[in-house]
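Batch job 17 of 40 flagged for manual review because the log was empty.
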Amino acid sequence: MLNEADIPFCPGPPKHQTGPFALVVPDGAVDTHAHVIDTDRLVKDRSYTPPPATGEQYVQMLNETGMTYGVLIQVSVNGQDNQPMLKVLEKYPKRLRGVAVPLLGQKDAYYQNMLDHGVVGIRVNVMFAGGGLELSNLEECDALARDWGWHVQLLLDGNDLPALMPRLLKMQSDIVIDHMGFLKTSVGLESPGFSALESIVRERAWVKVSGFYRLSQMVPSYEDAIPYAKRLIAAAPDRCIWGSDWPHVATWGSMPNINHLLAALGESAPSEEMRKKILCTNPQHLYGFEPIE
């Protein structure tokens, strides 16, 4: 664990998202990946120190980009203290859902409270310190998710997927893989990690066609990440979803603009029909949002 004085500070996102946007966001669109951050509740074992990110700031971003719904993902720097996220979910019950990092082995009332607030999944984050749950907890998380009608969301290094595949194939709850397996484009489309990702997505997993800026070596066009997204969309067009990854934590280079991220999605899914699946139909089904005709 880093000494707290040595934990790097990361900047916040732009205060406003400005258009015109390269991609017309359809009514009912869902941003499936964002964080709220309470800097009064930071865990000591963390990989970075971010500025605060409030529910109001996030909803403003949704409004500016034309997103109807959003999904908050428990952030690693707040560990397993889900209260900041639950408070925001309580304030926007129709517009937001949540993916929590719960304590395991709790009484039903603990999980029922999360369900009542709009929690629909469990996050296992092994990429950043403070995540709270490990891959060793995978089977227990799967059982808990099955009991509460949730899914299990994994933020991991896709290079570890070949070894993990036997366990994933035995899971009974839905699986969601974050940010195209967090695989840098330098690994190559034929790498064992991407081949395993493509296989599990084709077989049964959902995947977030997101995080282009984290994977690409071409900022901000992200052109080198687009072939990876296209392959995953072709593998499972009904299980691909998109997320902004706002407020872009642990970013020290060029801060992403959501317009650029939407443009990359548009390049990856050129047809309006496919973009509507990725932005609306698929995530509305997974997260339980009301479809907008």
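Reviewer: the log was empty due to a logging misconfiguration, but the result itself is present. The first helix runs from residue 55 to 65. Unflagging and moving on to job 18.
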